[in-house]
Structures are given as structure tokens and as C-alpha cells.
Design goal:
Structural class: alpha+beta
Radius of gyration: 24 Å
Distance between the termini: 45 Å
Number of strands: 16
Largest sheet: 16 strands, antiparallel, barrel
Low-confidence stretches: none
Number of helices: 6
Length: about 375
């Protein structure tokens, strides 16, 4: 641009870089100038559509895809823009069924059904229902729940809130109903920086033994994501949790991921947490720490999606505990079609103590998820 301020390729590149850096207003201006110069500039037309999509203007993004396809019905970028714009503005229904088990004999079968519907630009409502059948070597329990909420996005601000209730049905103790609340605020003050803060209140009911103990918990957490480049992400978070039995947990986590190409990433992750006091019945060490190297591979095409990732490192349970090897492997695979429709099989196995509610030696889970857009 310094050599030739009218060079089309350089101006297009500047618009793309502005969009990638989240300077969406600057990118919009540059794309519009290019389209005014040449109304048949497909790259600028599609680029402007993606800017609209990232601004939460799904209808405008879909119109841009239509303009581009009217010029060239085979244009790959325009067809992809039309697909993701349809997905973003469509009502979706998602259902899942999952199983989990740990080496302490805690087994759970869960089912969920949820729907999300856009109402206006940047505003959507959602609702869900779920059920959990939990058992251990000496007891059974059931949990039923429902929730409704809304999300709102504008510019670099995203707000989500929801409320609901859970019906807890232990085998021996009296049944009870507990209210649930959660909210999250996300802000992007600078192009490469995202901040978030969240609050939640819900019963502590992950396994059969806890469903009958009538415990509730409140949590507050905050996080930051920093993306110095398109391929590098640095993230961190901190939180606190208060249980109705008087116990309290604090935690801190940090990590770094570096992408290589579009499919491979490697990184490092560390976490530490501590409880004020140890309690029988749930994992509550005076300190738990883990540090691991992580890596993963993902593949996404028009008809299939698949990913495999894992981590290997060391963990310490308790201030006086000995360090031990820690690892995990998880993956998912399934077909996809149309604008956001997909079915996925997923699974995970780990020896991380914090993955199991009781701190069991091994934890494993598997399930299936289906998502349809209407």
C-alpha cells in the first residue's frame, strides 16, 4: 500500500487482517470501498459477509452470500458463508446420551435435550431438560432438571443468563427440589483479548452419594484469553466455590496452545486447587496440582468431523502427596450435513484425580450427541 495505495490485493489483505484482529468496523469500511470500486468483487463480498456474521448480523451475512452466489453460483467461499449463516440464524435442537464410570464404582447414565432459537439480531433464547441415573456399590439415585435462558451479543460484549430447577430423588433420603441459576459476561476490550466472568448456583449432585446429602454450591470464576497471533492462544482463569456444608474451594489454571496449520495443536496446561478442609464423600484435597503437555488433531470436512487429543504430565494429590504420572485421552467422530446438522460419538479416559467427583484412580465416559437445525 505504501508503494501503491490503490492496489486491490493489498487493500483486500488489509481488510482480512483487520477482521482477523477483530477490528470489524475497519474491515467493514475497507470491504465496502472495494465493492464500490468493483461490485463483482467476490472476495470482498464474501469477506463483508463474514464481518456481518462476526458482528451478530446473521441475516445480513446470508444476504451477502446470496449476492456472491448470484455472480458465481460455484464460488466455494460464498457457499460456505451461506452454510454458516444459515446455521447461525436457525433454530437448533440437540440431544445427547452419555455414560460414565470411575474406579470407585460410581456409574451414571445421563440424557439431555435442548433447543436454541434466535429471536432478533444478537439475541437468542434457549431451554433444556435433563435426567441422570446414578449408582454406586450401595445406593441408587435420580436427578431431573430443566432450565431456560437467553443470550445477547453486541460488538465485543456477550451476556448469557439462565435459571431452572432440579428434582433430586435419592434412594433413602427425602426427595427435594433445588433452584439453579447461572450467568456469564464476556467482553473483548482489545482485538486479541477476551475477558469473562461467571456465576452459578446449583446442587452438588454429580454422583448418587451426593444426591442424598442435600449439598448446594455457589461459584464465581473469571478468565482471560489472549491471542497474540492467529495460531497462538494463551489463557488463564481463577475461581472460588462455596459449599453449603461450609467448605470452600479456590482454583487457578493457565495454559498455552500453539496451532500448526489448521488441524494440529500442541500446548501446556497447569492447574492447582485447594479446599479449606477435607470431607469424606467428595474429592476435597488441601491441595491438588497438575502440569501436563497436551496435543491434538482435528479434521473437519463437509461430511465428517473428527478430533483426537490427549495430555501427559504429573499430578500431586495433597500437600504431602507424592507426584505421580497423569494422562488423559479423548476424542469424537461423526457425520455432518446441511447447515449445522451432525451426529457425534465421543469418549474419554483418564487417571486424573480431579476428573472424578471422588478422586478415583480412573475415570471414563462415552456417549452420543445429535444436533439438528430447523
Amino acid at each position: 500500500l505504501g508503494a501503491d495505495s490503490t492496489d486491490r490485493e493489498s487493500r483486500l489483505g488489509r481488510a482480512q487482517v483487520s477482521a482477523w484482529k477483530n477490528d470489524l468496523s475497519g474491515a467493514e469500511r475497507e470491504y465496502r470501498n472495494l465493492i464500490r470500486q468493483d461490485s463483482r468483487d467476490l472476495d470482498a463480498t464474501v469477506g463483508l459477509g463474514y464481518v456481518y456474521l462476526w458482528q451478530g448480523r446473521e441475516d445480513a451475512a446470508h444476504r451477502q452470500a446470496g449476492y456472491a452466489l448470484a455472480i458465481d453460483s460455484t464460488h466455494r467461499g460464498a457457499r460456505e458463508l451461506r452454510r454458516v449463516a444459515r446455521e447461525a440464524r436457525a433454530t437448533s435442537v440437540e440431544s445427547s446420551a452419555s455414560w460414565s464410570n470411575d474406579s470407585d464404582g460410581n456409574t451414571s447414565f445421563g440424557q439431555s435435550l435442548s433447543t436454541t432459537a434466535p429471536v432478533a439480531t444478537g439475541f437468542a433464547v434457549f431451554a433444556s431438560a435433563n435426567a441422570l441415573e446414578a449408582s454406586d456399590p450401595v445406593r441408587d439415585a435420580v436427578r431431573l432438571g430443566a432450565e431456560a435462558g437467553a443470550s445477547w451479543s453486541k460488538g465485543g460484549v456477550h451476556l448469557t443468563g439462565a435459571a431452572g430447577a432440579r428434582r433430586l430423588l435419592p434412594e433413602i433420603a427425602p426427595a427435594r427440589t433445588a433452584a439453579t441459576y447461572r450467568g456469564r459476561l464476556g467482553v473483548r476490550p482489545l482485538a486479541p483479548v477476551s475477558l469473562s466472568v461467571g456465576y452459578a448456583r446449583l446442587p452438588f449432585d454429580e454422583i448418587a452419594g451426593l444426591i442424598e446429602r442435600e449439598l448446594d454450591m455457589e461459584s464465581v470464576e473469571a478468565g482471560v484469553d489472549i491471542r497474540p497471533t492467529r495460531s497462538l492462544m494463551v489463557y488463564g482463569g481463577a475461581g472460588a466455590l462455596w459449599l453449603s456444608d461450609g467448605n470452600r474451594r479456590t482454583s487457578v489454571a493457565v495454559g498455552l496452545n500453539q496451532k500448526f496449520g489448521r488441524k494440529l495443536f500442541v500446548g501446556v496446561f497447569g492447574r492447582t486447587l485447594s479446599y479449606d478442609r477435607r470431607v469424606v464423600g467428595y474429592f476435597s484435597p488441601d491441595r491438588f496440582s497438575v502440569l501436563e503437555g497436551v496435543a491434538g488433531y482435528s479434521h473437519e470436512s463437509r461430511s465428517w468431523i473428527a478430533s483426537l487429543s490427549g495430555g501427559l504430565g504429573a499430578q500431586q494429590v495433597g500437600k504431602r502427596g507424592a507426584a505421580q504420572t497423569e494422562w488423559h485421552v479423548d476424542g469424537r467422530v461423526g457425520p455432518r450435513w446441511g447447515a449445522g446438522n451432525r451426529v457425534e460419538l465421543f469418549g474419554m479416559i483418564t487417571n486424573s484425580a480431579v476428573s472424578s467427583t471422588t478422586g478415583a484412580f480412573r475415570y471414563r465416559s462415552a456417549g452420543i450427541m445429535a444436533r439438528l437445525t430447523l
